[in-house]
């Protein structure tokens, strides 16, 4: 039951009163759910089926209508601990959601941003305290592709232009806007740094810790034909090369 990672089985995740069942196929998920339901019932507890959903990640599989799990609503995505998990198994929907939330906050701050009574540096502090945390929540685990990077940069530049009271119609380059706001260290730089810090934190964990097992796991099954998907570790490797810190990191290990 569960999924096997380097001879260890991951079957469930807990946080507060939330529980996630992890299975390799529908039949296993169905069996695990029934056993969990029976065990809870023994202790006088019931699972609220209206608040329970199941998600299949990866290739589409044939569904067996006889399975008990199909009494539960199937979803294409769900929010867990503030981040969106999708059936595609990537970070696109989570990043898109964060971008939309960032735009919404900027819209609420619009009167303040266009005001000439508030200094630019005060507006930047507002960005760091109110916009950037929302925009980059959960970013240390993102698969950060070039397309998603441009989306995050676009939200940040929208804020900076409003803070400078400069519209797009004035055709002032982004570099000039950043110089005026002294915002050289960008949100994407922040995301890269957080991913590197998380990588280092997990790398230093003991081999019995699940974050390290998951990060270092390499599936043995054959992948699909075509260009390989850019993984989170691919991004971390690139950030390390950009900063020329691979050799330093190896020495630290």
From TrEMBL:
Query: Which PANTHER family does the entry link to?
Result: REVERSE TRANSCRIPTASE DOMAIN-CONTAINING PROTEIN
Name under which the protein is recorded: Uncharacterized protein LOC115878969
- From the UniProt record, give one GO term of the biological process aspect: DNA biosynthetic process
Q: Which SUPFAM superfamilies match?
A: DNA/RNA polymerases (SSF56672)
Checking InterPro entries in the record gives:
DNA/RNA_pol_sf, RT_dom
Domain (Reverse transcriptase) ranges: 1-85
Name the source organism.
Sitophilus oryzae (Rice weevil)
Matching PROSITE patterns:
RT_POL
Top-level taxon: Eukaryota
């Amino acid at each position: 039951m569960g999924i096997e990672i380097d001879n260890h089985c991951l079957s469930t995740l807990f946080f507060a009163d939330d529980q996630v069942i992890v299975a390799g196929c529908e039949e296993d998920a169905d069996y695990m759910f029934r056993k969990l339901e029976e065990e809870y019932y023994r202790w006088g507890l019931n699972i609220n089926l209206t608040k329970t959903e199941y998600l299949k990640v990866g290739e589409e599989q044939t569904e067996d209508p006889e399975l008990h799990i199909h009494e539960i609503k199937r979803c294409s995505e769900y929010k867990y601990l503030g981040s969106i998990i999708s059936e595609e198994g990537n970070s696109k929907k989570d990043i898109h959601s964060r971008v939309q939330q960032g735009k919404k906050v900027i819209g609420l701050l619009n009167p303040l941003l266009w005001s000439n009574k508030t200094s630019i540096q005060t507006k930047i502090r507002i960005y760091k305290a109110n916009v950037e945390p929302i925009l980059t929540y959960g970013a240390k685990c993102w698969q950060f592709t070039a397309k998603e990077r441009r989306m995050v940069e676009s939200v940040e530049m929208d804020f900076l232009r409003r803070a400078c009271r400069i519209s797009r119609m004035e055709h002032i380059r982004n570099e000039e806007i950043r110089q005026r706001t002294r915002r050289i260290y960008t949100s994407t730089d922040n995301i890269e740094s957080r991913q590197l810090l998380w990588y280092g934190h997990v790398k230093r964990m003991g081999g019995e810790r699940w974050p390290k097992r998951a990060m270092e796991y390499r599936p043995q099954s054959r992948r699909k034909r075509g260009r390989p998907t850019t993984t989170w570790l691919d991004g971390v490797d690139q950030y390390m090369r950009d900063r020329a810190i691979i050799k330093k990191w190896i020495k630290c290990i």
